Amino acid sequence: MPVGLPEFVENPENRCPVILLLDTSGSMLGQPIEELNGGLAAFKQDVLKDTQASLCVEVAIVAFGPVRLAQDFVTIDNFTPPKLEANGVTPMGEAIEFALNLLEKRKQTYKDNGVLYYRPWVFLITDGVPTDHWQSAAQRVREAEAQRRLLFFGVGVQGANINLLKQIAPPERPPVMLNGLDFRDLFVWLSTSMKRVSTSKIGEAIALPPIGWGQISS
Amino acid sequence: MRWKAVAHFTEGTSHQHQGVVCQDYADYRVFDDDVVVGAVADGAGSAKYAEIGSKLAVERTLKFLSRISDHLQKRKKTWQHYSPPLSDEEAGKLFGKTVNYVQKKLSKEAVSMDCSIKDFACTLLVFIATPHWIAAMQIGDGFIVVHPENSEEYQLLFQPDKGEFANETAFITSPNAVGEMHIKVIAEKPKFICASTDGLEKVAIRFSDWQPFSRFFEPFEEYLRETDDPETEDQYLKDFLNSERLNQRTDDDKTLLLCLWE
Questions:
Q1: What is the pLDDT of residue A19?
Q2: Hey, are the CB atoms on B216 and A3 less than 8 Å from each other?
Q3: CB of A207 within 8 Å of any CB in chain B?
């Protein structure tokens, strides 16, 4: 008697969550915020070139200040890059805490729906100095990093206090100072990294592409 | 009655493209007609000699457990008709010793090849089944699914151990491998057993509730029923593992170790 063929179950794609934590304080006014917006558009375009990554990468944007959810988690094909506007102060501590809470909520949603996910990325871009209490947020970032619950990247734009960023970013991944206003290259790099993550084999560490858009402060 | 069993593994399309050999390995032994021991391993993509590690881990496991039948006989009281299931504690001890033995052998091989034991990093899944019960262990991802005789449902023994994230898992070469090992004993008659690596996870297991997808497993059970000698009549299995239909869904190495008590 001939035996039939095994059928396959449909499972959702693995997800690769990224939170962009963007400083939109008054000092970003003018060309910086325009270049940042251009970078977000370039990020979308570049991820879309890769089928696997566009199915897998989910982006959320937390802007500060004031702290607000400019974009909740969305897959790249449904992502409309926002036109961020610069004004207000720099409540970086509050923004980081907000992002970490958002991430925990998202992970719970994944778990509830049987979605497997890669280690989330939190990408902080700032040109300023926090105007609020940031120490406990920094503590949370470092604890999460130590427990390998996320990957935190700190990027300083001209005017940023890099020594302070160093106290937030984990020691093994020091903050990077952006070359001028080269947001476009930064976001293409982020996209390239996401493509590598989304096609990585389960159980494998990935090598990130070289950082051509900034200087690592060691 | 007897155990019918067969094991096959084949390289994934992503490895074919990169010219990398298959890093999965699987094998089994039947002892005294009624005890079957099976093992599968998936070499870590990042490990230098992953394919050697997975093969060694499986072979050494089977070697270490080759006297299991005697061991089970000794435990049996004269008034007992069959060897009673291992307790969780006994299973933990036995598999713990197995892991220590495999680690020792891997370390020895690492010395003779002048490399690190990490170069042999692989997952390891092992089961010992009699017609009356099954005991199993798992380090890392992959799956063991059992169809008990008196049940409609297929049963997944362990949720794939991926750490929190999709690209992390545990390996037999970790210093804390015994601590990362999951153990289970099912005191029901295991009619059908399927052990596999993570390459087939997403087509065989529903992630939302971690239930085995019965329409994936039923044909394999039927194939074993219809096949007198699965070792020689293995075209069905080979065709499946190399099918375009499957390769569209997974580019990873694929392994199937199947057993049927009949």
A1: 95
A2: no
A3: no
Among all residues of chain A, which has the CA nearest to that of B159? A114
Asked if B190 contacts B221 with a C-beta cutoff of 8 angstroms, the reply is no
B159 interaction partners in chain A (CB closer than 8 Å):
none
Considering only the beta carbons, identify the residue of A5, A8, A149 that sits closest to B164.
A149
Give the number of residues written for chain A. 218
- pLDDT tens digit sequence for B128-183: 999 999 999 999 989 999 999 999 999 999 987 666 666 567 899 998 899 989 99
For range A150-168, the mean pLDDT: 89
- Amino acid identity, residue A126? T
Per-residue pLDDT at A203 exceeds 50: no
- Return phi, psi of residue B170, to 5°: -100, 155
Q: Which residue among B42, B203, B223 places its CB closest to the CB of A3?
A: B223
Query: Which pairing describes strands A214-216 and B3-10: parallel, antiparallel, or unpaired?
Result: unpaired
Burial class (CB within 10 angstroms; exposed 0-12, middle 13-18, buried 19+) of B239: exposed
Q: Beta strands A16-23 and B155-156: pairing type?
A: unpaired
- Is the pLDDT confidence value at A72 over 50? yes
Residue A52's alpha-carbon distances to A14, A48, A56, A61, in angstroms, are: 10, 9, 6, 21
Cβ–Cβ < 8 Å for B146, B193: yes
Nearest-neighbour CA in chain A from B63: distance (Å):
27
Chains A & B: contacts with CB separation below 8 Å: 100
Q: From B42, B39, B53, B52, select the one nearest B5 (Cα to Cα).
A: B39
pLDDT digits 0-9 by tens, B10-56: 999 877 777 788 999 999 999 988 999 999 999 988 789 999 999 99
Nearest residue to B241 via CA among B212, B204, B213:
B204
Nearest CB to B141 within list A3, A197, A202: A202
Tell me which chain B residue has its CA closest to the CA of residue A13: B202
Among A78-92, A189-203, B106-120, B207-221, where is mean pLDDT lowest? A189-203
A205 inside 8 A of chain B by CB: yes
pLDDT recorded at residue A202: 46
DSSP A136-192: HHHHHHHHHHHTTS-EEEEEE-TT--HHHHHHHS-TTS--EEESTT-HHHHHHHHHH
Q: A116 at the B interface (CB within 8 A)?
A: yes
Please give the model's pTM, rounded to 2 decimal places. Answer: 0.80
Backbone angles phi, psi at B50, to 5 degrees: -55, -40
